[in-house]
Structure formats: structure tokens, C-alpha cells
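Table S2 (continued). Query chain:
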Amino acid sequence: MPDETNQHHGAHLDFSRDMSYGDYLGLDRLLHSQMPLSDNHNELLFIIQHQTTELWMKLILHELGAAKAHIAGGDLGPAFKMLARVARVMNQLIQAWDVLSTLTPSEYTAFRDSLGKASGFQSYQYRTIEFTLGNKNAALVQPHRHREDLAGLLDRALNSPSLYDEAIRALARAGLPVDAACVERDWSQPYQANDSVLKAWLAVYRDPDHHWSLYELAEKLVDLEDNFRQWRFRHVTTVERVIGHKTGTGGTAGVSYLRKMLEIRLFPELWDVRTHL
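Corresponding output:
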């Protein structure tokens, strides 16, 4: 009779006293977190799509927070890896819309009422990402004021320098002439493009060998925003495919609101610099 242990190439089979794969990942809790409110077959897809997006956003915030701290501390090297990882995560999120787009208008309509006023507009992680990247808007904390912990998290992100603010401060620390108003300002306000910052990035791009770390930082930021824009674009396209121009469940104008968000530029001078080179 064959030795069953050898058949499994020595794999450990008894987990009565050891931590298993499922234990480590908390799979019992994770896989029981999908609770459809209707009996419609397609609601599970909708829930899993958004839950996995929130998990990826948790990683994005983990990486962005660390990258920002490294930039603020003048240690740019580790930040490059973190920003590259964020861009790749966003690429995963872009591709994920292909799965949700298999949901037809008829299928979504069958369970849409179960959502009530719940909407991705209320994702506090997404809002924190936006604030961290510089798209600040104090009014968007309001949907979370019923939760002191969430409102506190968003208020901290709102009132802290953004990733791009820290990149601009890095330019100033490197001796490039940046207006003082860009180095210390009211961080709760959205960043406004500044000519001195454009000229600083121009100096970096015109002599990358001399400013290699800043040059690499600039390209990592452009790569990140490129992927963020594509993520937003695939979002609006998928929403239009599934619900057309209906009002969103959270009360927004739906597609027209999302299209307006496509116009936002997070790191304006890094795009403008290309015209001036």
C-alpha cells in the first residue's frame, strides 16, 4: 500500500496544533463577510468586486503613507518602490472593472434597490486616497461625520501635506527656488499650480543626471497619476455601461459627476513640464 505522506511530497497534513493557511489569512471571517440583501444571483459579484477593491485600497494607503514619510524625511529610495507598487495595484483595479462590466443593466436593476443610499461615493478609503494625493475637499468628510473614527481619519488626511506637497518640499530642500507659499500653506486647501514649481521641475528634467533622485520621483508620480486616471476612466465607462445616466444610489449625478472628476489633475506641473521642454 503506497505511503500517503510520500504522495504529498512531505507536505504537513495535521493542523490540529499548528496555524494553517486559512488561519493565517482569517479566511473564515473573510469568506463570511459577503452578505447579499437580495436573493439575486448577481449581487455576490457586486459585493465581492467592491470588497476586493477596498482591500487593494487598504494596501494603497499603506504604501502611500510610507512613501510620503520617506519623501518628507529625505529618503527617496524606498519611496520609489512603494510608489511603483501603488501604480501596479491601480493597474489591478483597472482590470477589475472588466469583471464588473459583465453585470448587465437588467441584472443590476434586479437587486439595486437593496443598496438603499449606499454608494462607492461614501468609501472613506477612496476619499483618504484622494486627500493623500492632493484632491482636498472638506465637504467630502461630511458623509462620515456620524463616525468619529472615520471623520478623524479623513480630517487628518485633509489637514496634512499631500504626497505632492511633500515632493514640492523635496524640491525646495534640494535648493531649487520654490515659492515659500508652496512649502508652508493651509494643507486643507487643494493645491494650485505654481510657476516656481513648474520651473523647478523644468530644471530637474533639463538636467536629470544632476537631479537623478528628483527626476525618478517625478516619473514615479506621473506613472501613479497615469494609472489613477485610467482607474477613474474605467469606473465611469463601467457605470455608464451598467446604469446609463441614472442618478447614483448615493445621490450623485452618476456618470456626469464621474466625468467631471476625470478633469482633476493631481500633479499639474509634472504634466505641464512636458509642453515646456
